[in-house]
Amino acid sequence: MSADFNIIADVGKGASRRLRHTGKVPGIIYGSGKDPVSFTVVHDDLMHHLEHEAFYSHILTVTVDGKAQKAVLKDLQRHPAKPKVLHVDFLRVSDTDVINMQVPMHFINEDISMGVKAGGLVSHLLSTIEITCKASDLPEYLQIDLVNLDVGGSLHLSDIDLPKGVQITALTHGADHDLPVVSIHAPKGGDDTTEEEGEVADTTATEEGGTSE
Fold first, then answer.
1. Alpha-carbon distance 113 to 108, whole Å?
2. pLDDT value at position 22?
C-alpha cells in the first residue's frame, strides 16, 4: 500500500495552525536510526486513506520529498469534537524490525455458530489487539472462528490462532492478561417463558385444590 506526503521545512505551533487553516495536516516520520522528518499531507487525502482498515495495520510506502520509505502508522491526533485529524505520526521500519502494532480482528461464522443457532447473542469485547512481530510478518488482521462457540461460552486471547512469528503482546505479561475477546450469552428475559409456565402451573394447582384459610 502506498501513501504520498510532502515535506515541510517550518515546524512549531504557529506553523501547524497555519497548515490546518489551509486544509493540511502536519506529521512526522521517524525511526530506523534516521533523523525525524516533518511533512504535511492534504487533510482530505489522509481521511480517504483512513477509511481503509488496512491503512492502520499494513506496511506502507510513504514517499517524502521524492524518497520512498517503508513505514507504519503509529499515532493519530484527532480533534475531540470534529471529524478532523490534527497530527499524524509514522514509524520507519525494515523487514527485520520487531514492532508492536494494533491489528483488527475479523469474526467469522457468527450466524452459524452453535450459540447463535440456540438463540444466543454475540458480544464483541475487543475489536483490535496489540501484537508483536517482525515487520515482514505483520498480518492485516486476525481471524476468529465462532462456529463452535455455544451459549455461555467465550474465546480468550490465548484461543486465537496466530500466524507464524506473531505474539499477542498482553500474553507475554502473564496468564492474568488473557482477556476474553468474544462471548455468546442468552438474551435478557430468556427465562421468562419458563417462569410464566411455572406461574400458570401454580395458579392451576391453586384453583383445582382451593385455598386453605
1. 9
2. 80
Q: What letter represents residue 119's amino acid?
A: G
Question: In whole angstroms, what is the distance from residue 88 CA to residue 5 CA?
Answer: 11
Cα-to-chain-centroid distance, residue 25: 24
Domain with residue 110: its CATH number is 2.170.120.20
Pick left, alpha or beta for residue 50 (phi over 0 → left; psi -120 to 50 → alpha; otherwise beta): alpha
The DSSP call for residue 104 is: E
Domains contained in the chain, number: 2
d(CA 150, CA 110): 11
Q: What is the pLDDT of residues 82-99, one digit of tens each?
A: 999 999 999 999 989 999
Residue 198 is assigned to a structural domain of this protein: no
Is the model's pLDDT at 209 over the cut of 60?
Answer: no
The pTM assigned to this predicted structure is 0.75
82-121 in b/e form (b: 16+ CB < 10 A) is: eeebeebbbbbbeeebebebebbbebeebeebbbbeeebe
- Tell me the pLDDT band of 12, cut-offs 50, 70 and 90: low
| Residues of the domain holding 134 | 99-185
Q: Mean pLDDT, to the nearest integer, of 45-62?
A: 90
Residue 208 belongs to a domain: no
CB 154 within 8 A of CB 115: no
The answer to whether residues 25 and 79 belong to one domain is: yes
